[in-house]
Amino acid sequence: MTAPRIIRPDVRSVIQQPLTVGESPVWDEETGTLWFVDILAPALVRLSASGKIDRFDMPAAIGALGLCRDHRIVVALQTGVHLFDPVSGDFELVSDPVGRHINCRLNDGKVGPDGHFWIGSFSEAKPQTDEAALYRVGADGRTRTVATGLTSSNGLAWSPDGRRMYHSDSRQCFLQAFDFDPDTGDLGDGRRLRSFTEDEGRPDGATTDRDGFYWSAGVSAGRLNRISPEGEIVEIYILPVPAPTMPCFGGPDLRTLFVTSLSTDRSGRFEAGTVIAFDVDAEGLPPFRFGDHPIAMTANRWKDNGGER
């Protein structure tokens, strides 16, 4: 096994306002806008190409977001999955997959190649339990539980052809992969790709690049791990934030990595959460949109990826 390459990127700050728990960065390639959340504020935040920041206060803790074709935002709140209109401020409930019967809240989520919002939960019990789960939510409100026995569902991402889904559990410290049908959203059996130590970085949010590598935020280690489809860490990006939470590709050529982080005193002094960015020798792919027809979405992905399936 080849030792991973250690990289110290040239990092720039993206925002000045401190975050409690920055998460779920999503680049809107149509508007050149970066969206992200501050989980406990709670707030949805939009950063425009001009540097203007718009903050939308949420009525409950917000775990993740996804884009819609009509410019609304699908948001995962403590109270369920909602559609939020940034213009009117209106919310429309889509589904409440967790309910109030267990002590969990919605956490990491993304729109998948099937046009559905894939959203996991996080145990808020003390000590944490394995009551968390992963759900698939359609624009029509239909919801399916696809994985159980989790503590902190995280790390959702898809291969460039949409045929593999990645998923992690931050507390149980494993990364797994599923065969994925982008037309139906059906999963094959999950298989463990690797487990992580605290020093390697508990696997938090993630993304994939055009070459099929998986980028995982090592929230306990101040680093970003680039992982091969076989589960080998091939590159380690040492970051100036102690607790990175999730990366996403953005910028005009999708070669900029934006990384959110959370507030922590792990380094011996308090450091607020933030958003950083740096350029990489890799290219991302644009995000999927909630409610889009899966065949059209994956066809566009294949076209954008050089026509390869």
TrEMBL record:
Can you tell me which family this protein belongs to?
Belongs to the SMP-30/CGR1 family.
- Taxonomically, which superkingdom? Bacteria
Ranges for domain SMP-30/Gluconolactonase/LRE-like region come to 21-262
What name does the UniProt record give this protein?
SMP-30/gluconolactonase/LRE family protein
Q: Which InterPro entries match?
A: 6-blade_b-propeller_TolB-like, SGL, SMP-30
Short name of one Pfam family: SGL
